Amino acid sequence: MNNRFADCQTIEDAKTIFRAAAHSAHPDHGGSDEAFKILMSEYESFLNDFIADRFEAAGDRTGNADFHIFQEILNEIIHFNMDIEIIGFWIYARSSYDYKDQLKDLGFWFSGKHKAWVYNGDVKRKVFRNRMTLDDIRRAYGSDHVQNEKEREAIV
């Protein structure tokens, strides 16, 4: 199978390729259902592999985090109208006030320091002793915006 996402280094790269290919492959734009299904399959495969690689690279520090649960959580929130960022094996959801109850039900907890709902596969401890800033954490573990404000405006 020709995977057009093979050279992508970030989720942003993959989304750019997906949008360009989706325009021509979509049945409403002269493409076929089969071509669009193949494109969707390749894109979903890239996202799953990319997130799995990032998850493994960050390591399982919680002792109970599971990539499949992490992927399911991300799939649950990907369509919410908010900023979503993956840093290591943590998911940060910002501009998410409208979804706070759903996020809480999924196991997110609110971080006042980062002004975001956070998911890491573990329950919130009362005190985190990490004094790293969010930029330090991004540099240490890498960061990918799954959905950001510009994309939200495009959706609306």
Number of strands: 5
Strand content bin? 5-15%
Number of helices: 6
Supply Rg.
17 Å
Low-confidence runs (pLDDT<50, min 5 residues)? Answer: 60-64, 152-156
Class computed from helices, strands and strand pairing: alpha+beta
Helix content: 40-55%
Q: Main sheet, how many strands, which sense, barrel? A: 5 strands, antiparallel
Whole-number mean pLDDT: 76
Provide the number of structural domains.
2
Termini Cα gap: 34 Å
Characterize this entry briefly.
The protein has helices at 11-25, 33-58, 67-77, 100-106, 134-141, 149-155; strands at 83-87, 90-94, 109-111, 116-119, 143-147.
Written description of the protein model:
By secondary structure, this protein is α+β, with helices and mostly antiparallel strands. The longest helix is centred in the N-terminal third of the chain and has 26 residues, at about 35-60. Helix content is about 45%, strand content about 15%. It is built from six helices and five strands, in the order αααββαββαβα. The model is unreliable at about 60-65 and about 150-155 (pLDDT under 50). It folds into two domains: about 10-60; about 65-155, no CATH class. The protein has a five-stranded antiparallel β-sheet. The chain is globular, with a radius of gyration of 17 Å.
